[in-house]
Structure formats: C-alpha cells, structure tokens
Design brief:
about 450 residues, alpha/beta, six-stranded mixed beta sheet, 17 strands, about 30% strand, globular
Length: about 450
C-alpha cells in the first residue's frame, strides 16, 4: 500500500469511540493478574458510510509480588541426527543442562532425543534430582537421520503424563535439519501444532544453523502459540533457552477465550494474523497464555454498514474467560463497544489511536513481506527484491505518518525488508546462503508479529 493509499485507508478504516462498561452478564469476576483493554483505530466513525473498523483487545499480564508461579511441565525435544555432530550437539547439551538448572522441585521435565529413532532420555519426572537429569543429557551423541514428527509425538506424550490446567505445559523443540523420516511437510506440522494448542500445550521451536526447514519450524510454533527462533551459531543457543524459560516461569494466565459479540447489522469480519471461529454475530479467539510484563493483543476487523452509521450506537460486547496461575477459571468484567459517528474528516483524522494503528500496521507489514517471500520462492528474485524495497518504503512512510518511527516491531519489519532488498553477492553460492539467512529471519519475525506480544 503506497502512502496515498494509506491515507485513504485511515479515512475509510473505521473510527470508533469505545465506551467501556460492565457486561450485562451477572457476577463477572476479574483477575488481578490480567488487565483487559479495548480500543479502536480511531475514536470517531464516518457518518452514513459503509466502513471497516479495527477493534483492539489487549490483555496485559500483571506481575503480582510474592505470588507463587505456576509449575512448569516441559519436554525438551532435541535433534541428535548426524548433522548435529560437534559444536551443535555440545551447545545443545549445554543449553539443555542450563535449562534444567532453571527448574525447581515442583516442575516436571522430560528429555526426548531423536534421529531416525526416538529415545526417551528422561521420562517425565520432578526436577528434584537435577544432577541425574543432566548426566543423561551429557550422554547425547549425534547419529542417524531426522524424525522430527516422531520426536514431537514422544515429547507430547511425556507432557501429557502430568498435564494440568494449573501447570505451564510446553514443548521446546531444537533441530538443525529437515524432517526426512515420517511426515515432513509444513502443513503436517501446522496441523499438529493446532492440535497441541487446543490441548493447552505450547510449542516453541529453535532452528539451529541454516539447513532446517523454517516453514515447518515456524509454522509449528505459530500454530501452537509459541515462538520460533533462528539461531545461526551454536554459541547463541543458551540465550534463547533462557528467554523461553523466562517466559515459562512468568505465565500468569492460560486457556484464554476472547468473545466478540456484535450487534445485529454489524458484520463480523476477520481476526488479523490468527484463526477465529465465526458463528453468526460471535467471533471467538483462543490464546494459550499470557506472560507477566507483556501485553498480548488481538485485532478484529469488523464491518460497519452505512445504515447504522449515525448518532451513537452500541456495536457489540467483548468478554474474556481464562485460567489463572492456580488453574481457577476466571471471567473478566466485560466491555461494551459504542461508536460515535461524524461527517467531519478533521475530527475523524485527529481521533486516530496510535497503539491500535500500530498493531494493524505490524500485521500489514508482515503480510507484505510474506508476499515478497513467495515471489522469491517462485524464482522471481529481482521482482522479490523490488517488492521488499517497496515494502520497506511503505512501512517507513506509514510509521512516520502515525508518529511510530521508533516502534520496535515496525522497525524490525522494515530492516528485514531492506536487507532482503539489498543487491546479492556476486557469487551464486554466497547469494543463496545470504537468502537462506534472510528467509529464516523473516519467518522468525513472522511468529513474533502475528502474536503482537509487547513487553512493557
């Protein structure tokens, strides 16, 4: 979208005023660990026009001093195929042992290794005897081919042994290669991730080196509400294990259900970057977890017909249920969405909400870069580079127009697009290697931006 188109989009996108009040349901409960906010991309809608509005639902994880964290139930699923020989398997062992050191006696850990065979190195057990667990990890050696699917299934089975709503149930997968035993297509792993996510099992993936399939690894993590990390060098592995355990140890809510109940005449649209169930006037989105000191946001695009675009109207209600760190089901106080309409373009433009527009723009940037990746995958390298260059210009222009030049997520998307647009090395081999790195970086960014999780 060019700058002129972006300005037009701001005018047409929908300009909502959101009034917040208690839902009509009786006896709602709130959780001190999660704060709900609802805003829209603008605070005034265009009168007598059909338009799209963007409704942002933010769920902020609040750290409660002195509150005991939820215990962790984690499976470490580690690639031990032949390509892990040397520095990679040594780094994997070191990172896994450091992860075990982060656990306490209430936590559950299992260790699964895979090549063309699956070995349960450590069956799911309390992390009370960490020395014994680390001794098992020290025995990992590289061999054979890569059966990621079977490794994941074994890891999921170990997590299921102790899976509970009052625990953080998680799989952390590390691989440096392609799946060449059993199911091997990204679509297979996306379906697996969705299944595990519905069970309440989060999956995060770490791709080590440049030979793994980033579509498979990123797709698996994204579909199971986890993160994907591209680790170019084995020495960086510990830092990413640390980040994953920091998140796991700071989960304040799980099994989150967000309901958008729209008034008759208001058309359900879509949820940006996520799957949603749409039944009549209700849109339903599931999230797996909320982490302390972060905000998870959902953007809903809803359709406003011209027939109701006058005066003030109630457009719908937002309600949220979740499980707190103790496994208790909580209903947050619901919020009412009201819109005000005006014929004044100046009034509408001046009412832009930068936080909501920022999230919309992040999703747009992700989609633009994904389209350019597809061009590159089709062998249209020059066309893809021109598209990445245009993407970077568009992202920068939109950020400037919205006063978001310093936004971290937009800057990351722009920088990745600029890197992919740069002239490649003269050597075909060097050019191919450069693109492998750039593609993996773009896929990692995609899993982050699709969740729109912000630290504060």
């Amino acid at each position: 979208m060019h700058m002129s188109q972006f300005g037009l989009a701001l005018a047409l996108a929908g300009t909502l005023s959101l009034a917040v009040g208690p839902a009509t349901a009786t006896g709602p409960r709130s959780s001190a660990s999660v704060e709900l906010s609802t805003t829209l991309n603008q605070s005034v809608l265009a009168a007598d026009q059909t338009q799209t509005a963007y409704l942002r639902v933010g769920l902020k994880g609040i750290r409660t001093p002195g509150r005991e964290r939820a215990p962790i139930n984690i499976a470490l699923v580690i690639d031990r195929s032949g390509s892990m020989e040397g520095a990679r398997i040594r780094a994997a062992r070191q990172a896994a042992k450091m992860a075990v050191d982060r656990l306490g006696p209430r936590d559950i850990v299992s260790v699964v290794s895979y090549d063309d065979r699956i070995t349960i190195e450590v069956p799911a057990t309390r992390a009370s005897n960490r020395d014994a667990i680390k001794q098992k990890i020290d025995q990992l050696t590289a061999r054979g081919s890569t059966a990621i699917w079977a490794g994941m299934q074994a890891g999921a089975d170990e997590v299921r042994k102790f899976k509970s709503p009052d625990m953080v149930n998680k799989i952390l997968l590390l691989s440096d290669g392609l799946a060449n035993q059993g199911p091997s297509q990204p679509a297979d792993f996306i379906r697996l991730g969705r299944q595990l996510g519905r069970e309440g099992i989060i999956v995060s993936t770490i791709g080590l080196g440049t030979e793994y399939n980033e579509d498979l690894m990123a797709g698996l993590a994204k579909s199971a509400e986890g993160t994907h990390k591209f680790v170019a060098e084995p020495a960086d592995l510990k830092r990413f294990f640390d980040l994953e355990f920091d998140d796991a140890q700071n989960v304040v809510a799980q099994a989150i259900n967000i309901y958008f109940d729209l008034e008759p005449g208001v058309g359900p649209g879509r949820i940006l970057g996520r799957e949603a169930e749409v039944r009549g006037q209700r849109m339903h989105v599931r999230l797996t977890q909320i982490i302390a000191d972060t905000e998870q946001s959902i953007i809903a695009a809803i359709e406003i017909p011209a027939s109701i675009a006058n005066g003030e109207k109630v457009l719908g209600h937002v309600s949220v249920t979740l499980s707190d760190a103790g496994g208790e089901t909580i209903e947050l106080p619901g919020q009412v969405v009201r819109a005000r309409f005006s014929a004044s373009a100046i009034e509408r433009t001046s009412s832009i909400d930068p936080t909501t527009m920022r999230d919309v723009m992040v999703h747009e940037a992700r989609a633009m870069n994904e389209a350019a990746i597809k061009l590159r995958d089709q062998g249209r390298a020059d066309e893809a580079r021109r598209q990445f260059e245009q993407n970077a210009r568009d992202i920068d222009a939109k950020a400037k127009a919205a006063g978001l030049e310093r936004d971290e997520h937009l800057a990351t998307q722009s920088a990745a697009a600029k890197a992919a647009a740069a002239p490649p090395p003269a050597s075909p081999a060097a050019a191919a290697a450069q693109w492998e790195n750039q593609r993996k970086t773009l896929k990692e960014i995609d899993t982050i931006s699709s969740g729109a999780r912000l630290r504060f």
